[in-house]
Amino acid sequence: MSSVNLLERNVKKILSSAGFDPRLRADLEGYEIDVYVEYKSERIIFECKQYERSNLTVRNLIHQWNGKQEELGVDRVVLVLVGVSVSEDDFELAEKRDIQIWRGEKVDSLLDDIVDGTTNLREKILLDLDLGSDEEIECRIEEIMESYNVQRDTAVKYLRGEITESELERLSEIGESLEGEFSEGMDILSDRDIRRFKNDETYYGKPFREVVRKMGELGIQDKKVARLFVGDKGGTAHGEKYSKNDTKKIELLVEAFGYSFDTVRDFVFNKQPRMRTLRRAVNVRSERTDLQLKEIYNYLEGGFTVREIKKGQTERRDEDEDEASVPSSDEGDETESRETEGRSANEDEQAGVEKGAQEEKESMKVREANQAVIEHNEGERNRKSYTQERSGDWSFGQTVLVIVLILSVVALALVLLS
How many whole angstroms separate alpha carbon 411 and alpha carbon 406? Predict the structure, then answer.
């Protein structure tokens, strides 16, 4: 067994002073537990981490002890962290995993209570660990909730000494403001969220008041999703991506149709409708409140105009088509015969037109071929004629030249003989 550090001793001191029976470095299913305590049927583990400077990833520690909690079958895990930065997201994750986090300030406050002789130390710890309390404390909690119009968690924190009476009054005023803007705000928002609202803080870079307002307007239960509808809209929440156009479409439909956020979101994600189509659907809805979104959307995608849908002409057209497609028993054979004859006549006429066009094309090709042959033959004749003419002209010139030469020779001979 390794040596016990100061933090572990302080946690044991706090629990002992509150009337519990804690054990240091207890062995539980082969694991060495820093501080272990039992209360009634509850088994509680305190894991103490103290650092001067640490880059400890609190999220990893939460996941690690969530797994150990299930493996060991304990009811509560409390991470006592000193010298470690704990973010708001870490607290939210711990709440989801049913894990408590005590920071150094919490330990110091409980140690001060021991020094000051605080009589309700045990109740503070029981309430903090959600282990129940006696009847008197429960009555006091209900009284505070009713008097200040705050949540149970706020009343409990007041009794624990974590908030003062003046802070309790401010939270009460904020609660009234939230109920005015967002009727379900007090049921959904945690005390940490109410403090964000009170201090006009941001949440993932977005004004938290605007996030709360969007939760109320759109009926969103999750603030991480609601923040995607504030400011530069769009993003990812819980692994689900919302484009900027998705947020605009959802807002438009929730306002126009009054459906729940989840219903509209599923429609937008599944159908991927165009914004122009949705605006036309809203136009129809302004007069045809009896039609549901999917009905209107299907009519628009089917080629009906806004005016036709508003006037109910889609229903009449449907009836006409149904009547036309099902002939009466008396007229069935005659109608079928007329339709058959009509189709045959149309088919024959179409066949004749196509045949005539084909014959005309073939005749044109023959005429073009004949014309090409004629032009070719005429060209050959012209070429031969020209060659023959040039050939005849050349033979006559040669004959004349020969005669002239002969005469010249004869004349020269006569001159010499004389």
Answer: 9
Is the pTM here over 0.90, yes or no?
no
| C-alpha–C-alpha distance, residues 385 and 390, integer Å | 9
Please answer whether residues 182 and 215 qualify as being in contact, where contact means their C-beta atoms are separated by less than 8 angstroms. yes
Between CA 92 and CA 96, with CA 95 as vertex, the angle to 5 degrees is 90
DSSP 229: G
- Which residues, in sequence order, are CB contacts of 63 under 8 Å at separation 6+? 97
Report d(CA 386, CA 149) in Å as an integer. 121
Nearest to 294 by CA among 273, 315, 317: 273
Element (H, E) at 353: helix 332-417
Distance CA 265, CA 144 (A): 39
pLDDT average per 10 residues of sequence, the chain (418 residues)? 82 92 90 90 90 75 91 91 88 90 91 82 81 68 81 74 76 61 55 74 86 87 91 88 94 92 94 93 92 93 91 67 48 47 52 60 64 63 56 61 83 78
From the list 263, 225, 280, the residue with the least C-alpha distance to 247 is: 225
Phi, psi angle pair for 49, to nearest 5°: -130, 120
End-to-end CA distance of the chain: 164
Cα–Cα distances in angstroms (integers) from residue 288 to residues 250, 274, 295, 334, in the given order: 20, 21, 11, 41
Residue from 161, 163, 95, 105 nearest 130 by CA: 95
Rounded Cα–Cα distance for residues 331 and 177 (Å): 73
- Which amino acid, one-letter code, is at 101? I
